Amino acid sequence: MSTCTALPGLTTGQAPFIEEARSRGELYLTQPYDLYSEANHAAWRGLYARIQPRWEQYATPEFLDGVTALHLPPGRIPRLTEINALLAPLSGFEAKAVSGYVPGFLFFDCLRRREFPTTITIRPAERMDYLPEPDIFHDVAGHVPMHTGPQFADVLVRFGECAATAVQLTADLPDPTERRRRLVSIMRAMSRFFWFTVEFGLMRTPAGLRAFGSGLLSSHGELEHALLSPDVQRYPMQLEWVINQGAEIDSYQPILFVVDSFDHLYDLVGTFEAWMRAGKLYHVGPGLPEIAPRDLDSFLEAAERLL
Questions:
Q1: What pTM did the predictor assign?
Q2: Could you give the angle at the alpha carbon of 63 between the alpha carbons of 59 and 67, nearest 5°?
Q3: pLDDT at 129
Q4: Separation CA 49–CA 51 (nearest Å)
């Protein structure tokens, strides 16, 4: 009997199917829907039921429209095939199942191709409030509704194009040490920009400040905290500040940034790329996030392919 049959379920950190896929070097998968246990579906139901009222209070209208357009099921984990059948006609995006962490360049290159790497495991019931890694609730309920809007989808594609630009600008540097240094600085700037917008962004709306970042929209506790807590400093988006601002990885964000619209955000990504081409991103401030070796290697490998 296979381990998958003996130990059904796709619980984060406890999924033999995922471990076996990783051992074979398989990054992209087909969602094995029948492996979800009743405990997995119960975790989705619990997460969805408690956050849905907060979406109504604190999410941007575009996110709420996306939840409706995708017919996100409150009672069970969604099938990605069903999500994609509704998503693709709206923005050209699709949720692409993966076995785990996608190294930096590969992740951004997926966005460039309108593919969103999507975790298929779900957190255990005893970890409902916080998980240090993505799960299907974060990815599908937090991210994917935003992908239904063409304006936001175009922003993600531009982020992917920025990663390609970073590779092109550093590929022919004769000094490999300088190539690595420049890439690390650009990657840190891009990670912070992505973090404070796509993951933890706020937007001005006629109804007041609302959240569009998936890290907020998938967190029952932080979503309300981000909009109401006096402990959070909320500032108009300033690109030069954001790319030098360290992120909080394991706690609520004490500083958040506010964009005016998705057109504003799209223009900011264009400015980011222009600064990259002008050599303005080679000396960003130190601090979190740290650039993991496998993320840097993914950019270096992409650069090597251009030589």
A1: 0.94
A2: 115
A3: 77
A4: 6
